[in-house]
Design goal:
Elements (H helix, E strand, L loop, with lengths): L6 E5 L3 H13 L3 E5 L2 H11 L3 E5 L7 H11 L5 E5 L4 H9 L4 E4 L4 H16 L7 E4 L2 E4 L4 E4 L2 E4 L2 H12 L5 E2 H9 L7 H15 L9 E4 L3 E4 L2
Parallel strand pairs: 1-2, 1-3, 3-4, 4-5
Antiparallel strand pairs: 6-7, 7-8, 8-9, 10-12, 11-12
Bound molecules: calcium ion (CA).
Length: 230
Amino acid sequence: MTDDKKKILIIEDEPQIVLGLTDALTFEGFEVVSADAGKPGVELARRTKPDAILLDLMLPDENGFVVCEQLREFDRTVPIIMLTARSSEADKIRGLDSGADDYVTKPFGIGELIARMRAIFRRTERPIEIPESLQVGKADVSLTAHTVTRRGRTEPLSFYEVGLLRLLLERVGQPVARGEILKKIWGLEGAPTNRTVDNFIVKLRKKIERTPDKPEHILTVYGCGYKLVL
Ligand code: CA
């Protein structure tokens, strides 16, 4: 790691989880701050401007979905990973809709979480060799402002959505496998979370494609993954 340490905010009320995460992340060279409820967590995020946030879904004062929306009001791009005991698809979608980038279901392995953190920061540190903005069909995408504008309407793009677009753009016109997307964007290996990629593709298509059900630019390559066609 470089000497400017990445700061991670943990918003979680279970002391053992906070302790375990703090130890492991500190050992890995991250700076860690934590809050044991939603309100102080949002305040701490405002004050300390973390590089990533781990957010528990079940907090004593407010639920994580609400906290996530509050965080997104003043920071649209910080990666937010939700920590939760729930694992239903509906909860995942609600979490992603509230502005979270990713989901980790308890009990999770510390190693897995650290791999995800590393993947996040590898991506932000990668030198920029692709344009700051691009035209996808009728949509104007800004990879630096994290926005997409279509028909005069501007919507935010999440951290992972931008990462996904950049990866597809690097290999424009060629298929990129789901497994590679998972590994490069989420720092994960293996099949159980392939749905994560698919969920993000669905959201991206809604923001970018003229007819999301009949995509013209973010195409499915059957048996492989996805490709971007400009
Ligand atoms: Ca909790």
